[in-house]
């Protein structure tokens, strides 16, 4: 097989190895990232509940102030009742008292409702904080495992990059430039095998003449349909 073709095929295999590291890294980080996302979601929910509690406490405080005002008003009306001189004044005072009592009843009910709501949300916060603490305890162990996996992947990647660097240094620069142009669009299918007289990049059948050139391997042969570099795998070459 043509030396330059061998180098291009080898380079395509090395590039595939390099590209395969990214999903390995993502997979290694997957569990840690999922736990971290859950923890962040819980933290956001806790913060939202705390803000809601603050808002409800403000509403409760306003109702308590209003209740204090109503109590003072009822007390004042009670004093006034001893000074009433006419029936009209008495009826007016009674009406005010009834309205005030209704407002007192409503304020008490609203305060009770808000207290229950605050207690419920605080219980939810306590539950979420317990979950967050549990996740924190797990995160450290998962991170340690991830770091071990990433360190191993990094070592393997360094070895592959070293092989690529050595290979590229020994290659004809014109052939390398030619390979890189195809790789820009073909990615990991820059150099593909021919099987059953078809390009494994575009899966189109190639002519007998092109297939014969691929079998010989004396020159770099490109697929006439898609432009990828074609080669015959060793086992197929033996059969051919």
UniProtKB/TrEMBL annotation:
Keywords: Coiled coil. Residues 25-145 form a coiled coil. Pfam families: Zn_ribbon_9. This is C4-type zinc ribbon domain-containing protein. Residues 198-230 form the C4-type zinc ribbon domain. It comes from the Bacteria. The keyword Coiled coil applies.
């Amino acid at each position: 097989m043509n030396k330059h073709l061998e180098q291009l095929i080898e380079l395509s295999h090395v590039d595939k190895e390099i590209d395969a590291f990214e999903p390995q890294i993502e997979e290694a980080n997957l569990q840690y990232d999922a736990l971290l996302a859950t923890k962040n979601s819980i933290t956001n929910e806790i913060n939202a509940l705390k803000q809601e509690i603050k808002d409800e406490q403000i509403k409760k405080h306003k109702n308590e102030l209003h209740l204090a005002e109503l109590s003072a008003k009822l007390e004042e009306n009670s004093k006034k009742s001893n000074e009433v001189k006419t029936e009209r004044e008495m009826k007016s005072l009674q009406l005010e008292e009834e309205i005030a009592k209704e407002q007192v009843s409503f304020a008490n009910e609203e305060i009770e409702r808000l207290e229950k709501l605050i207690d419920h949300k605080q219980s939810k916060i306590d539950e979420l904080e317990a979950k967050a603490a549990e996740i924190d305890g797990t995160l450290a162990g998962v991170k340690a495992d991830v770091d071990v996996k990433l360190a191993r992947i990094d070592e393997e990647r360094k070895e592959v990059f070293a092989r690529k660097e050595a290979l590229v240094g020994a290659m004809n620069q014109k052939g390398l430039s030619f390979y890189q142009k195809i790789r820009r669009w073909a990615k990991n299918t820059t150099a593909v095998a021919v099987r059953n007289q078809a390009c494994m990049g575009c899966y189109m059948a190639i002519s007998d003449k092109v297939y014969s050139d691929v079998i010989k391997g004396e020159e770099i042969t490109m697929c006439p349909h898609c432009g990828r570099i074609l080669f015959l795998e060793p086992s197929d070459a033996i059969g051919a």
